[in-house]
Amino acid sequence: MSIERKPIRRGGIRSAGYDRGARILEIEFDTGSIVQYSGVGDEIARRFLASGAPASYYHDNIEDEFTARRVK
């Protein structure tokens, strides 16, 4: 599965994208690792992608709340 990511380049996050149909949020970190979070709803993904502080939003609302799968 390929998810189109948009550049974020803030707070250790290089890029991120969301597959609405599969409810998967994919985040690429500055370290080069890519992690997919499953079961993420539209509103959470939208708020994360639009956040002025994406790293804080990620730590508060995504990191420990959804199942993660490292893809790279």
From TrEMBL:
**Protein name (Swiss-Prot/TrEMBL):** KTSC domain-containing protein
Q: Which Pfam families match?
A: KTSC (PF13619)
Using the record's annotation, list all stretches that form the KTSC domain: 13-66
InterPro entries from the entry? KTSC_dom
